[in-house]
Amino acid sequence: MKTTERRPKQRPRAGEVRLEGQPVSSGVAIGYAAVAHEPAPPPVDMARRDCDSAHERTRLHDAISRSVAQLGRLHDRLALLPEDGQVEIGSLLEVYRRMLGPSRLRRGIEARLEQGMLAEAAVMQETETLAALMLVPPGRPAPQGEDAVAARRRAGEFREIGRRLVRNLSGTPYRSFSTLPDGAILVAEQLRPADAALIDPSRIAAVVTEEGGSTGHTAILLRALGIPAVLAAHGLLAQVGRRTRLVVDGATGRVIVRPSSRTAAAARVEVASYARERQMLGRLRRLPARLSSGEVLTLQANLEIPAELPMVAQSGAAGIGLLRSEFLFMNTDTLPDEELQEAIYLPLIEAMAGDPVTIRVVDWGSEKNSDALSRVGIGNGGDANPALAVRGIRLLLQHRTLLETQFAAILRAAHAGPVRVLLPMVSLLEELQAAREIYARVGRRLRRRGVKIPDPLPPLGIMIETPAAALMTDVLAQEAEFLAIGTNDLTMYTLAADRAATDVAALYDPLHPAVLRLVRMTADAGLRQRRPVSVCGELASDPQAVPLLVGLGVRSFSMHASAVPRVKRAIRAAAMDDCRRMACRALEATDGQEVRAMLAQYAHTLQPPDDG
């Protein structure tokens, strides 16, 4: 962990300056900047090895006690925040609380104290070591794509709790936002998740920072609070002085310092326009996802971590189409048992109030890192090409106890509402048959124990993520009760291109006709076998692409919750005949660029429906 140093103060330049950062939370705001500096803790002697270990251990335990008390006070403050923020912060505070308890982190710090290290140094070294393990697992390829996003988030959790301990060890105070004027735009070098928990969204107009990213806990929290926000606007602090006026666009990442009169006037128009759009999208929440020609579709939400649940309800999604269960196995030393998993699934199912929840059993491979799984020899093979190695259902069938435990937990929670169970990365009929036999056996065992579970068992479906699965959908659909097309992996395997690999990223195109033909083939097979087919990859969140997917035969979509309103708006403006014509043209196209141009042209002709 690095101790941040105050940068030399520079004289702000005159005139309008435009900066670009990472868009985090949509909305436009205009107001005066209020800079919140974070007091830096004193320097730490990292080389010292002659400390009294008993004394340093006492200091550590005192710092842990103070940290736990602070987290408790933050938790008590949740009632003052919007409901979305309450859930996000509450979940994160629970992660921090567990890390401060009997954990690998705490054991590692205490082991360093026995070497005579200063408590601050032990905390900094251990948290940075664990964060680095999240980002680059030893002997394994660095995580890519969504796995890299999750890895950065987990690394941030270690670093954040380390910072809290160091501040409490050194007695360094935290910054406060209570003195900021109403309507101010909060400007900071960096904003921690715990800092964001102190923001009153009724008083702060927007947030801009020099550092940070769009995928961390702070970004998720700001989105949940509904505050326009831009992170990583480099060079911002050098431009901001007393009473500096800013325009912040959280959708584009644009920050304008000292806007001209003309720019300020345009910004006020954008503020009003955004307010009207939010009202319109809010009305869409209550309306069906129905084409202008009358056909009704299903829009559901993907869920990566429970903290995103409020965004699902806010979006108007008709259930959870993909609950990724990998979060259960991250930042923990032990595998989650049947009871713990049930306790996590149950409130998610209950919160959906009768809308269906599709839970995908853990999708793991050697490119991912989990202490709990590594302890039992899972996911630590260091394969040269993890995408073509033991992952998904292949791995689960090699470690059947893991699959049985998860099946049992899902079945135990399924009495609370409609549930579906999804198997990842199925390529062969034998894999599906073996998993179904385990599923049925677990159900029989639970009934013998007198556990209340649904009868019949919840539907068991498969992800269509490889060309082999798409080509064999007719056969697989005889055993699978529903099908979910994962366009991200399907694109990668079809075009032999990993979007995270710089040299071939340009070849990765989910709108390539080869991918679209496999989608059409899967949808046709599902129709013949009377099996529901959904798309749950990133393509489902593209408002221009969804009408094309409808034309290819897909009637159900699952996407990030934030995309649901805009996709619904596109659907309500489209007609089935147009969707089918686009599909025919797309299947005859020569490349993805041609398809993309066609979709853009069609979107330009659409008139948004009157949803008032």
TrEMBL record:
<keyword id="KW-0598">Phosphotransferase system</keyword>
<protein>
    <recommendedName>
        <fullName>Phosphoenolpyruvate-protein phosphotransferase</fullName>
        <ecNumber>2.7.3.9</ecNumber>
    </recommendedName>
</protein>
<keyword id="KW-0813">Transport</keyword>
<keyword id="KW-0762">Sugar transport</keyword>
<keyword id="KW-0418">Kinase</keyword>
<feature type="region of interest" description="Disordered">
    <location>
        <begin position="1"/>
        <end position="21"/>
    </location>
</feature>
<dbReference type="InterPro" id="IPR036618">
    <property type="entry name" value="PtsI_HPr-bd_sf"/>
</dbReference>
<dbReference type="InterPro" id="IPR000121">
    <property type="entry name" value="PEP_util_C"/>
</dbReference>
<keyword id="KW-0479">Metal-binding</keyword>
<dbReference type="GO" id="GO:0008965">
    <property type="term" value="F:phosphoenolpyruvate-protein phosphotransferase activity"/>
</dbReference>
<dbReference type="Pfam" id="PF00391">
    <property type="entry name" value="PEP-utilizers"/>
</dbReference>
<dbReference type="InterPro" id="IPR008731">
    <property type="entry name" value="PTS_EIN"/>
</dbReference>
<dbReference type="InterPro" id="IPR050499">
    <property type="entry name" value="PEP-utilizing_PTS_enzyme"/>
</dbReference>
<dbReference type="Pfam" id="PF02896">
    <property type="entry name" value="PEP-utilizers_C"/>
</dbReference>
<dbReference type="InterPro" id="IPR008279">
    <property type="entry name" value="PEP-util_enz_mobile_dom"/>
</dbReference>
<comment type="similarity">
    <text>Belongs to the PEP-utilizing enzyme family.</text>
</comment>
<feature type="compositionally biased region" description="Basic and acidic residues">
    <location>
        <begin position="1"/>
        <end position="19"/>
    </location>
</feature>
<dbReference type="InterPro" id="IPR006318">
    <property type="entry name" value="PTS_EI-like"/>
</dbReference>
<keyword id="KW-0460">Magnesium</keyword>
<dbReference type="Pfam" id="PF05524">
    <property type="entry name" value="PEP-utilisers_N"/>
</dbReference>
<feature type="domain" description="PEP-utilising enzyme mobile">
    <location>
        <begin position="180"/>
        <end position="253"/>
    </location>
</feature>
<keyword id="KW-0808">Transferase</keyword>
<dbReference type="InterPro" id="IPR036637">
    <property type="entry name" value="Phosphohistidine_dom_sf"/>
</dbReference>
<feature type="domain" description="Phosphotransferase system enzyme I N-terminal">
    <location>
        <begin position="20"/>
        <end position="133"/>
    </location>
</feature>
<feature type="domain" description="PEP-utilising enzyme C-terminal">
    <location>
        <begin position="281"/>
        <end position="574"/>
    </location>
</feature>
<keyword id="KW-0963">Cytoplasm</keyword>
<dbReference type="InterPro" id="IPR024692">
    <property type="entry name" value="PTS_EI"/>
</dbReference>
<comment type="function">
    <text>General (non sugar-specific) component of the phosphoenolpyruvate-dependent sugar phosphotransferase system (sugar PTS). This major carbohydrate active-transport system catalyzes the phosphorylation of incoming sugar substrates concomitantly with their translocation across the cell membrane. Enzyme I transfers the phosphoryl group from phosphoenolpyruvate (PEP) to the phosphoryl carrier protein (HPr).</text>
</comment>
<dbReference type="InterPro" id="IPR015813">
    <property type="entry name" value="Pyrv/PenolPyrv_kinase-like_dom"/>
</dbReference>
<dbReference type="InterPro" id="IPR040442">
    <property type="entry name" value="Pyrv_kinase-like_dom_sf"/>
</dbReference>
